[in-house]
Amino acid sequence: MQGELDWKICPEMNTERMNEFLQQTSQAHASEFIVMILDGASSHRSQELRVPENIRLHRLPGYSPELNPQEHVWDELREKEFPNRVFDSMDGVLAQLEAGLPRMAANPEALKSLTAWPWIVSINMNAT
Q1: Which residue of 43, 51, 90, 111 could cross-link 18, Cys pair, CB 3.0 to 4.6 Å?
Q2: Is residue 97 classed as helix, strand or coil in its secondary structure?
């Protein structure tokens, strides 16, 4: 609930990358209990996911992006970092992400306003 942003930029998204992200997030917040909200992506549903002890996954119903706070984070990122931009290559997009994500992470109050929805806060409070 502190408005922290964890991310991983990778060339593909699969179960292996998701496991790496879960481990990275777990280690970054080793003394915290995390409820992670996920959509129905195959890498989020894999039987091969290795979920660390301090993380619980809460899967959203199918086709419900309006319930996913991450969608608001992406909207904000697109608005602030990619307005009216055309890139010559994927490298340019990645460079903009690598610059923009830390700027977004530096504003925890803005992140909380995007993601700390009452039903999410309620899940987190009840899970600990």
Answers
A1: 43
A2: helix
Rounded to whole angstroms, the Cα distance separating 25 from 54 reads: 10
Q: What is the reported pTM?
A: 0.81
Residue % of the chain over a pLDDT of 70:
94
- Taking every pair of Cα atoms in the chain, the longest distance, rounded to a whole number of angstroms, is 47
- State how beta strands 34-38 and 55-59 pair: parallel
Burial of 18 from C-beta contacts in 10 A (0-12 / 13-18 / 19+): buried
The SS3 assignment for 107 reads: coil
Q: Rounded distance, CA 106 to CA 102, Å?
A: 6
